[in-house]
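Memo subject: From amino acid sequence to discrete backbone structure tokens
Action wanted: Derive the backbone structure tokens from the amino acid sequence.
How to read it: Take the token row as a discrete description of the fold.
Attached in line: The record itself begins immediately under this heading.
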Amino acid sequence: MADFSIERGRISEYDEMIDFADTVFLARFTETVPSLYDGHPETAEHHYLLRENGRLRAMLISWPVTLHLGRETLSTRCIGTVSVHPKARGKGYMRALMARAIADAKADGTDLLFLGGQRQRYGYYGFEECGMRFELGFGPGEARRLPERRGIAAVPLTEALIAPAQALYEQQPIHAGRTDFLGNLRNEFGRPGALLRGDEFVGYFSEDGVRVREFYVRSPGDALAAALCVVDSVGKDLLFRLPPDQRDTARILSAACDKSSLRAQGMYLILHHSRAAKAALSLAADLGYVEDGRIVCAVEGGERFALEVRGGAVSVYPTEDTPHLSLPGREMTRALFSPLGSLLAGAPMPGWLPLPLCVPMQDEV
């Protein structure tokens, strides 16, 4: 194998990183992920660069995100821009980069890592498909048969409307800390829009012509009318993707949409199952859909902890009690956080599963 080195990126290398990503993916990353690559050289230090004899041959970003789940927060790393030069493939460079990024995340106390990608590819590194989101599909035909619009109109998200949109986002039980709110809405070719009733701000959305990637309204009573306005504005089939805290909106849209499902959201590597489970179970309790109960979980080669709900109060604590679930890390992740969790657990569980975990779609990198 040729000599190679792995280093963290520097601001002076920012343009080189963008050129490399553009070359590997045949894309323009200033447009694909503007929240990171459209004038944000401060993100350079979160990249890992592998150089072979001084030449950049592989790269990824491990982007730090504070993930809010109700009153709890989880230290999260979103892995993205996973790229290897075509002439350097098959040399194990991506394995070396992923190993370094994961080791650093463990060392700095990260709770979980997230990425979008194939399970067969990233399972090798310990990632498992889990998290969840609602998917609800509408077409122009269905929209025309549903007259309700409630005086709402979909319009472009102007500068004056960014502040109320961001405030609405940050009020949601599940949200991520964002340094460039508009840039996040534009990620993956998102087109941000606002929902107005006259001069009244009703909500906002970001769509890419196929999916509504982010959609929030101030009042669930406006959800259906607002969704129909988005479909009207695009003029073709749209799939609304909603995080699991948007249960009221999902319930309202599911009664009128053409198709609906609950799906796994992405690939997660949970480094601290007890912290992730506490945050997600606490959110479920805040949303009002957990019953009293207790389970003991043992991660093989790792932590053993109890999850308990009493009178709506959540507690998570170390224990030496016999576990109800004793599983390797990936299987524990599936049991607690996959949409199929209660089926995969292999033991009677309280009606908590799956626990609501989700990295918002526009924070994926």
About this structure: The radius of gyration is 21 Å. The CA atoms of residues 139 and 194 lie 20 Å apart. The chain has 13 helices and 19 strands. The chain has three domains: 4-110, 133-262, 271-355.
